[in-house]
Amino acid sequence: EADIYQTPRYLVIGTGKKITLECSQTMGHDKMYWYQQDPGMELHLIHYSYGVNSTEKGDLSSESTVSRIRTEHFPLTLESARPSHTSQYLCASSELGQNNEQFFGPGTRLTVL
Amino acid sequence: TQLLEQSPQFLSIQEGENLTVYCNSSSVFSSLQWYRQEPGEGPVLLVTVVTGGEVKKLKRLTFQFGDARKDSSLHITAAQPGDTGLYLCAGGYQKVTFGIGTKLQVIP
After folding, report:
1. Choosing among B51, B72, B96, which should be mutated to test the A contact, i.e. which has the most A CBs within 10 A?
2. Which end of chain A offers a freer environment for a tag, N or C, measured as fewer CB atoms within 10 Å?
3. Which pLDDT belongs to residue A97?
4. Which of B41, B98, B103 sits opposite A43 (nearest CB)?
5. Mind giving me the DSSP string for B18-48?
6. CB of A32 within 8 A of CB of A14?
């Protein structure tokens, strides 16, 4: 069973607030990812990392930023949340070279009022 | 960017029926993964297919990788309400591409 955790599961905040979505995995995976998914829609890759101090932007432009200071931790930060940021944010991890089989966290459902 | 097209996008069937969903691309993939996602949760990996023509079975689910490694199918035998969910295919090496998914509803 995959051990990847996301907190909070649900977050409702006002416009302009700074937020950090947490993601941690205990599998020692080098690769980690953040996806954005609106209800009933496809997954969009917004950030990924190949390891410590490595971060890259994904296919979907996002105003969020990420950091990877430790292998197990890949937080996502929004400096000033807006209603357009309302979505489900999914974190995932995978081993290097293992066919990119990804293990997903349960997601954070973010609502910005 | 390697694109994955999934069909159908929506499927509603009665319990006990069989169904097949498809994942197609014009690109060759070294492997493809299938995931199932339930509402409000993250996708869960079901299987990885690697070899062209490969067939893998997971209880009532049968996965096949096309001979040319450009497409894959998922067949469910005697669907159950617990099979309801969004079925996603994914592939790629440096950057993983996900299909839009097939939303399956199995009616009791």
Report:
1. B96
2. N
3. 74
4. B98
5. -EEEEEE-SS--S-EEEEEE-TTS--EEEEE
6. no
Using pLDDT thresholds of 50, 70 and 90, give the confidence band for residue B14.
Answer: very high
Tell me how many residue pairs between chain A and chain B have CB atoms under 8 A apart: 54
Determine the 3-state secondary structure of A81 from DSSP. Answer: coil
Among the partner-chain residues B35, B42, B100, the one whose CB lies closest to the CB of A107 is: B42
CA separation for the pair A112, A97 (Å, rounded): 37
Cβ within 8 Å, pair A100-B92: yes
pLDDT, tens digit (0-9, with 9 covering 90-100), for A22-53: 999 999 999 999 999 998 788 999 999 999 99
* CB pair distance less than 8 Å for B33 and A99: yes
